[in-house]
Amino acid sequence: MSFLIQQTLLYSIPLMIVALAGVFSERSGVINLALEGIMIMGAFVGVVAVRAFQGMQFFIDAEANGSWMTLQLTGLAVMLIAAFAGAVFSLLLSYSAISLRADQTIGGTALNLLAPAISLFLISLIAKQTTLNLEGGLNSADLFMLKRSTLGIEPTEKLNFFTETFVVKNYPATYICILVFVIMAIILYKTRFGLRLRSCGENPQAAASLGINVFKMRYAGVTISGALAGMGGFVYAMTTQNCSANGDVAGFGFLALAVMIFGNWKPLNIAFASLLFGLLKCIAVSFSTLDINGDGIYLLKDKIHVSSYLYMMLPYLITLIVLSLTSKNSRAPKAEGIPYDKGMR
């Protein structure tokens, strides 16, 4: 059960933070279909940043001495770098959608096509292959995962359920993302800035009549969205891809859009929807090694004789089913996708 919860969190948290990224953009009135592309760029820039830190003396000393605090702070710095990269990349969508009033769906699709092309081109220049890994054959577990040795726990020491599930073999980045999610949700719904941002997505003309700069608020919404999606992309790469980049995030950006719609653009609903989709993704990836009761029996593999391809399809099938059942009751921001025109009333 501990393994199931751990793996569910690993897949849920990136979905949660990227779905909130979509909320920030769409609550400001801009459809952000580029979440997938921004995640790809965040993952790529994050892995490049980790490789750069690997060559610095302080990182080499920290790795040699087992200074886990230095390694975790480095991981936090890389998350911020990935967030910055996502914010910068999202400016392409901002400029086309807000300043040029271009079709937002086409703009987002273009960024989704551009991101893997750029990342794969640069990966081929850096690594002469299609996947960018860490130096020295290391992976994210070696650097950023909390282990027994990290916490000074003996290998044979019996752990309680909480420590075994939520501390050992977990990434602090997971809990940092949860904290960021809570803070950003509060900013969106409990502050003056959040109220102004949401008003621009509901009725931008009314917001402008009260002195709110709709252009600036929409730029802010899309930029915050890009930062959160970039951070989510790197966290996904770190926790599920061994801190590697290959121009792909397994459709998580589109899954995040589904989570956002299913959650009705509300943070609490999004959190629960992310856990559901994270559980399904966990089952799809690790069904053959999933020991739910800890009794050594792999129920999904040995007892339920279903093709492995069905498990792999499960998250995406459920996404289609859920969206078909709930999309009619979902209430999107009224001005979403509509370019702002000062002269329109």
What report would you give on this structure?
The radius of gyration is 21 Å and the shape is globular. The termini are far apart. Helix 3 packs across helix 4 (68-99) and helix 8 crosses helix 9 (192-202). The longest helix is centred in the first third of the chain and has 32 residues, at 68-99. It has helices spanning 2-27, 35-54, 57-65, 68-99, 104-127, 140-144, 161-166, 172-190, 192-202, 204-209, 214-240, 252-262, 267-286, 299-303, 308-326. With 345 residues, the protein is mostly helical. It has one domain: ABC transporter involved in vitamin B12 uptake, BtuC (Orthogonal Bundle), CATH 1.10.3470. The mean pLDDT is 88. It contains 15 helices and no strands.
Order of helices and strands: HHHHHHHHHHHHHHH
Please identify, by name, the CATH architecture: Orthogonal Bundle
Average pLDDT, all residues = 88
Helices, by number, come to 15
**Structural class, judged by helices and strands?**
mainly alpha
Overall morphology:
globular
Instruction: Indicate the low-confidence ranges by residue numbers.
Output: none
The CATH class assignment is Mainly Alpha
Major sheet: none
Helical content, roughly?
55-70%
CATH topology: ABC transporter involved in vitamin B12 uptake, BtuC
Strand fraction equals: under 5%
Radius of gyration, CA atoms, in whole angstroms: 21 Å
In total, the number of strands is 0
Distance between the termini: 56 Å
Number of domains: 1
